[in-house]
Amino acid sequence: MSSKFPDHFLWGGAVAANQVEGAYQTDGKGLSTSDLQPQGIFGAVTPRVDGDSGIKDVAIDFYHRYPQDIALFAEMGFKCLRTSIAWTRIFPQGDEETPNEAGLAFYDRLFDEMAKYGIQPLITLSHYEMPYGLAKKYGGWGNRKTIGFFERYARTVFERYKHKVKHWLTFNEINMSLHAPFTGVGLPEGSSKSEIYQAIHHQLVASAKAVKACHEIVPEGKIGNMLLGGILYPLSCRPEDLLETQRQNRDWLFFGDVQARGSYPAYMKRYFRENGIQVESTAEDQQALRETIDFISFSYYMSGCVTTDEQQNTAERANILNMVPNPHLASSEWGWQIDPIGLRYLLNVLYDRYQKPLFIVENGLGAKDRIEADGSINDDYRINYLNDHLVQVAEAIDDGVEVMGYTSWGPIDLVSASKAEMSKRYGFIYVDRDDAGNGSLERRRKKSFYWYRDVIQSNGNSLKDQG
After folding, report:
1. Looking at residue 263, what DSSP letter applies?
2. Cβ of 10: how many Cβ atoms within 10 Å?
């Protein structure tokens, strides 16, 4: 197909500190909430005791092997790499007055390595983790004091890296706190809706304060939010299904509405009122929220359906969300429905709603890869998935949607967030490690490695429209 991608399009990949770095207590790093979830975000919260270990403690050892991995990303032609800063490397307990220099120095080295190859960093401030010290001592985001601790952290890294990082994100998939409150806001399972929404409110205020700080400290930079793009369709054309679909889509679009528009929408105030949800919001909070993001970033893996018909309501958990399966779509090995056209639809929905640039910062296929006798890994299923989604991105650009870039999820195999598995592989690069933590950690290029290299080199011209 002839390329519809702009010349400055940011091609790349996305990882998260707690899923790749390992070195979980190295150079003064403190315990994060992720360190207490050895079985992933759906697993139990488990206190750390001497001698125990989890697969994320080493992960893929990116902390020590990043030069090798950055070189492989550069070989593919990456223009951009999305990763996160581990908050506990900078403030180990979260409430310190001064940052941990060893942690700051690590990210200096990482960003310098990326700069050697002309790879722009896209940095998430908090990706599915926060200092456990803040959760234990203060009650996580349920405590208003956490806003100040986060703002101190954000200002610290903006000042340190203002000449190295020009693209920032605040919270990864901020809307997922509704479904996994410990991971998102440091609250225990079973917290009430009022408690969860109060914690979310504090997080939204903190996000806005980080946006303001970024605009002050990195004036030529851009900072966005990050949504879990869980777009839903009505299962039927019954008006009741349409209305319920709108309501459920608003559950997650609410976060974008606040961050892009600067205030709470009326539909959310009605929801709070009718469900007895109390959220304390001060005049200062409302003023802070007016500082809005520069662009919208989001993840997209699948779509789902909604119905009000109880006999058809066979909702299944896929990733974080419960969704009714779409009878017109195929599914991955993990039961995630594959809907490339849904990405074009979502891009148009978000651009129509916000008129801000969009950045697809996660999209990919988790699968069990097999090494052939000759050492090759022929992951055509991944190539087909990504090709078909990128063709739809091109269509959305042709529709008039402003898309800044695309960073595929897990360009190198990593520990999955949901269940802390290595066997659920996303990468263009295979990492020799299994779910039990065994393996050499050797890196190996898959067939998709060369395919993605060609996509980037051709600025999308090599994509095949198979529709």
Report:
1. S
2. 22
Three-state DSSP at 385 gives helix
- Other beta carbons within 10 angstroms of residue 372's beta carbon come to 8
* Nearest to 114, CA basis, from 268, 195, 10: 10
- pLDDT tens for 35-55 read 999 999 888 898 888 878 899
Q: Which amino acid is at 323?
A: M
β-strands 429-431, 443-445: how paired? antiparallel
Is residue 362 part of the annotated active site? The answer reads yes
Identify the band that residue 317 occupies on the pLDDT scale cut at 50, 70 and 90.
very low
Q: How far, CA to CA in Å, does 335 sit from each of 71, 229, 325?
A: 33, 17, 9
Distance of alpha carbon 389 from the chain centroid: 18
Report the run of H or E that residue 123 belongs to, with start and end.
Answer: strand 120-126
The single residue of 21, 129, 151, 173 carrying the catalytic annotation is 173
CB 254 within 8 A of CB 230: no
Which tens digits make up the pLDDT trace of 402-413? Answer: 999 999 999 999
- Write the CB contacts of 263 (distance below 8 Å, at least 6 apart in sequence): 286, 289, 290
- Catalytic residue, chosen from 129, 195, 291, 362, is 362
